[in-house]
Design brief:
Layout (H helix, E strand, L loop, with lengths): L5 E14 L11 H15 L3 H9 L2 E14 L3 E5 L6 H8 L7 E6 L3 E4 L12 H11 L4 H15 L14 H14 L4 E4 L8 H16 L3 E5 L3 H7 L2 E6 L2 E6 L1 H13 L2 E4 L2 E4 L4 E2 L4 E9 L8 E3 L4 E9 L8 E8 L5 E6 L13 E8 L7 E11 L4 E5 L4 E6 L29
Parallel strand pairs: 3-7, 3-8, 5-6, 6-7, 14-21
Antiparallel strand pairs: 1-2, 1-4, 8-9, 10-11, 11-13, 12-20, 13-15, 15-18, 16-17, 16-19, 19-20, 19-21
Helix pairs in contact: 4-5, 5-6
């Protein structure tokens, strides 16, 4: 690889945050910060020495990125994958020049267009039309260059009627459509896209993926963060897996996805036929915690594998973490394919089952008739919410998996397992004359 081909060179970069305090190296202070700092200074003068020591003890360093090194050349389409908190968004912010690394060196050649979060990149008081020209100017484009792409941007974003409306009045979907259209069409040498595309509808997501594919084929560089492994596999020529702020793997896309899924499997351990959820990040109120998962048949026997069409029970073990009474609770499960794509989501309140007065330890049991999946391994996620929408517990990653073998789902007839998709359909056929 010649140096002229390299668009991004990252050398041992790290990013440190001080938890509970202003980030080190901050270059400016708002008036409210100055006032707050003066108040803190006055307060410190009257705090006893022992209390000072206690204040200092709460300072905690957190390294979001540690010694990241890589080279990205022209035309590379890089997928950046990893669990929540792995450092993906922090890396993209550094590559987009939104934040500076605490240590290390980064060299970027060419114009960068980034779409990282809904709400960034546009001025809310300006119209869609004005923001298109503003973004182009920031990227160093002339007014003539921006005008030449203007109609194409507006057509792609499908916001013609709202072009002269301030973007603060846009829905999140409209905002993302316009932001992506601007980022992709103003011909940057480097296009950086975060998971923000998940805000758009399925049709627009497909449109965006097709556009990113075109951008890559034109020889421009694309960096793409997503939890959708099918999209990573389709779009990217290389993948970087981040784990706890470090590069765990950098190379072949399918290998990176395999490592990613193996790491997800590492969020639980097998104990007999029951998986125990390990020390993974849980979001929610924390009043209840999911602790394990198992699969059993109707006789209560734990299963290592299940058969397509078999009636099974999925068990979700939990423990209450508080003494307060919890009511109006729903538990949901999601089943994912080997690439992590969700195939189905099923909450208890979908069928009118809402739980209250829970014992301190228990098992949520979900009975599934005619398990509708063909042979393969499927990962199971779980989430507990209150009916009012408040999240109680959501283990990040999966709580277990189900291995499925060929079964007599169709009971009779000619079955060609190799021709089946992941989901099997229960139905009938008939012939009528017309």
């Amino acid at each position: 690889m010649s140096m002229s081909d390299i668009m991004i060179k990252v050398e041992n970069i790290g990013k440190k945050y001080i938890l509970g305090h202003l980030e080190e190296g901050r270059k400016y202070k708002a008036l409210r910060d100055v006032i707050a700092d003066q108040a803190k200074s006055l307060g410190r003068k009257i705090i006893r020495a022992s209390e000072k020591q206690n204040l200092n003890s709460v300072r905690e360093e957190f390294w979001a990125l540690k010694d990241i090194s890589c080279e990205i050349k022209q035309g590379d389409r890089i997928g950046i994958i990893g669990r929540n908190g792995a450092g993906k968004s922090t890396l993209l912010k550094i590559l987009s020049r939104i934040t500076e690394p605490t240590k290390g060196k980064i060299v970027i050649k060419g114009r960068v267009a980034s779409l990282l979060e809904v709400g960034t990149g546009f001025h809310p008081e300006l119209t869609g039309r004005e923001n298109i020209f503003l973004n182009g100017s920031i990227m160093g484009m002339s007014k003539v260059e921006i005008k030449s792409k203007f109609d194409e941007i507006v057509a792609f974003a499908e916001v013609e009627k709202f072009l002269d409306t301030p973007v603060k009045r846009y829905s999140s979907g409209m905002y993302v459509r316009l932001a992506f259209a601007v980022a992709a069409h103003l011909e940057p040498e480097i296009l950086i896209i975060d998971e923000v595309l998940a805000v758009g509808d399925a049709k627009f997501q497909r449109k965006c993926l097709a556009k990113m594919e075109d951008v890559g084929k034109e020889g421009r560089t694309v960096l793409f963060v997503s939890h959708q492994m099918a999209a990573i596999k389709k779009l990217c020529s290389r993948a970087i897996l981040l784990q706890s702020g470090k590069v765990q793997y950098d190379g072949n896309v399918e290998s990176a996805i395999d490592y990613y899924l193996d790491y997800f499997s590492g969020s639980f351990e097998q104990n007999g036929n029951i998986t125990k959820i390990l020390d993974v990040k849980h979001s929610g109120t924390g009043d209840l915690k999911l602790t394990g998962f198992s699969v059993e048949n109707l006789k209560g026997v734990n299963l290592i594998t299940v058969s397509s069409g078999e009636e099974i029970i999925l068990n979700f073990f939990y423990e209450l973490m508080t003494n307060k009474e919890i009511s109006d609770l729903s538990i949901g499960l999601s089943i994912h394919n080997s690439y992590g794509d969700p195939l189905t989501i099923f909450y208890s309140d979908y069928v009118g089952q809402i739980f209250s007065t829970l014992p301190s330890k228990g098992i949520f049991k979900c009975r599934i008739k005619d398990f509708p999946f063909s042979s393969g391994r499927y990962f199971v996620g779980a989430r507990v919410i209150l009916i009012n929408g408040i999240e109680v517990d959501w283990p990040q990653g999966y709580v277990g998996f189900v291995d499925v073998q060929e079964g007599s789902f169709y009971r009779e007839g000619n079955i060609r397992p190799q021709d089946l998709g992941p989901i099997l359909i229960r139905g009938d056929w008939e012939l009528k004359s017309v």
